[in-house]
Amino acid sequence: xxxxxxxERVCYSTAGPLRPVIASHCTQCRKSSSHFAAANSTARxxxxxxxEVLWYQSSLRARRGFCKNCSSQMFWDGLxxxxxxxxxxxxxxxxxxxxxxxxxxxxxxxxEFANSLLxxxxxxxxxxxxxxxxxxxxxxxxxxx
Length: 145
Ligand SMILES: [Zn+2]
Prior knowledge:
The strands form two sheets. This protein has an eight-stranded mixed beta sheet. The longest helix is centred in the N-terminal third of the chain and has 7 residues, at about 25-35. It has about 140 residues and is mainly beta. The protein contains two helices and eleven strands. Helices cover about 10% and strands about 35% of the residues. The protein has a single domain, classed as Metal Binding Protein, Guanine Nucleotide Exchange Factor, Chain A, CATH 2.170.150. The protein binds zinc ion.
């Protein structure tokens, strides 16, 4: 699958399996995306990125990747084996379906959930594939803190 920023100066392609899509409602995703962030992830070795990505260190153990030119938020990197990819930059049709919500305890108070998908208060290994205890060694999950 392929994706790009607004101006197609940063482009990427994935060559391997993708984790199911989850929506993160954590404060950082809300503030950096202006709502919530939908992301999947793939092995770092399966992702090819071209163009100049500006990495913002958003916490001690994670950074967020933006296009340096147009500021599209494209990646979340927990510095493990996987890299999370924000869904908005994939070229349509994506053909993927949202599988659940994480960090619901931090969601904005201006909206309610309109579907019956699993809603986890924080990280949920059933959605992300990884427990919090594994966060130092792998980042296939989307843990925003
Ligand atoms: Zn751009």
